[in-house]
Design brief:
The chain has one domain. The longest helix has 41 residues. The radius of gyration is 23 Å and the shape is globular. By secondary structure, it is mainly α. A 3-stranded antiparallel β-sheet has the order 1-2-3. A hairpin with a 5-residue loop joins strand 2 and strand 3.
């Protein structure tokens, strides 16, 4: 590559970075059209897609490191180290650790990273709606990819009629209610402590890996069914079945920052409502308060008037898209760094204990306590 070509690429990258960082810095009643509108929309969309791609790479890296480590244990040796981030896939253990923390004031040492990650997700939802679902969650990212695939195949998105959509949306709240009842009301403190220190929970991360490596015929059919439905009905899992999303949706109602529409600047084009993955009537609302709002900013990106749709707190404090992205990443990076420094990131299960337990994981001792 010639030196002049290299300088041109660097200059282009610098210009695009400046444009990204200045996205929506200046608000205007001007109606953007053509290339200007497309550039603004792409800047906001690719900002979120960039965060999604970064997190997917992190998750894939954690998965590769964990599988390599478990394969070493199965061979009777230690290969690399166990990544604590894998506990992000243990939400039930994290929820139980949260109750243990509330009851005792202490963090369970078995899977502390599960609790840390759960708390960070809750903090994000309290500040910027369900941004975890649309910016960080790998399942949410895969759902979005399946929705894009469906649009490419069918040339459109489908939606269920209201008489089916409403009762199906309640399913995720019923699942959430079941877990809250089972963990926070049905389990006694003694049973909770017994579970947290049980043989099953001490190796729950490896059992989780085995579940996906040894999927039952029913689980395979279920996953294929959800994937196929997600290409036809956008975000099928997130919209109807995810109890984690239901929890974040309830908390997001308390979020001070919500998408706010300025009626005087709105041109009633309806592009924001068409862009919303939750099919909310953004073009008719003053503030989007719904627990179904993903905080994805697709509506903001689709709006051709920068002053019409903004992310605002009640007193007019505005959050630009780039600030939202930085805040989400800062909460997670800062929270994990704090957990590392305070000793609440690595669990207390030694490599030697893992080596002793792994050969016996199929025995009744390691069945889930019901």
């Amino acid at each position: 590559m010639s030196e002049s070509r290299l300088h041109a690429l660097v200059a282009t990258a610098e210009r695009e970075t400046r444009e990204l960082l200045s996205t929506d810095r200046e608000l205007s009643d001007e109606v953007l059209k053509g290339a200007a509108y497309k550039r603004r929309r792409l800047r906001i969309e690719w900002l979120r897609h960039g965060v999604q791609a970064l997190l997917m790479l992190v998750v894939l890296g954690i998965g590769w490191q964990f599988v390599r480590w478990v394969n070493g244990l199965e061979a009777g040796r230690i290969v690399g180290s166990r990544p604590p981030g894998v506990e992000g896939f243990l939400p039930i253990s994290g929820l139980m650790s949260l109750r243990h923390l509330v009851l005792s004031g202490e963090v369970s040492p078995v899977h502390p990273a599960a609790l840390v990650l759960l708390l960070l997700v809750l903090v994000v939802s309290l500040l910027v709606k369900k941004a975890f679902c649309s910016w960080l969650c790998p399942v949410g990212t895969i759902s979005e990819m399946l929705e894009a695939l469906g649009r490419k195949v069918f040339r459109r998105s489908f939606s269920l009629p209201r008489f089916l959509d409403l009762p199906l949306r309640s399913l995720k709240y019923l699942l959430l209610a079941f877990f809250v009842w089972a963990i926070f009301f049905r389990m006694t403190p003694a049973l909770l402590s017994q579970f947290l220190d049980s043989p099953y929970n001490r190796v729950a991360d490896i059992k989780m890996l085995y579940f996906f490596e040894r999927l039952s015929p029913f689980a395979v059919k279920f996953l294929i069914g959800v994937a196929l439905l997600s290409t036809v009905i956008p975000y099928f899992w997130c919209r109807y079945l995810c109890p984690y999303g239901a929890l974040l949706g309830v908390l997001s109602l308390l979020s001070p920052f919500k998408v706010t529409r300025t009626a005087q600047s709105c041109i009633d084009c309806g592009l924001c409502a068409r862009a919303c993955p939750s099919r909310l009537p953004v073009d008719k609302l003053r503030r989007v308060r719904s627990d179904e709002c993903f905080g994805c900013l697709s509506c903001v990106a689709a709006c051709p008037v920068t002053k019409a749709l903004q992310v605002e707190a009640p007193r007019g404090l505005r959050m630009r898209p780039v600030v939202a992205a930085a805040l989400v990443l800062l909460i997670f990076v800062g929270g994990i760094a704090a957990a590392r420094l305070t000793g609440y990131w690595h669990n207390n299960v030694s490599n030697r204990e893992y080596l002793e337990r792994v050969p016996n994981l199929d025995s009744p001792e390691y069945e889930h306590i019901r």
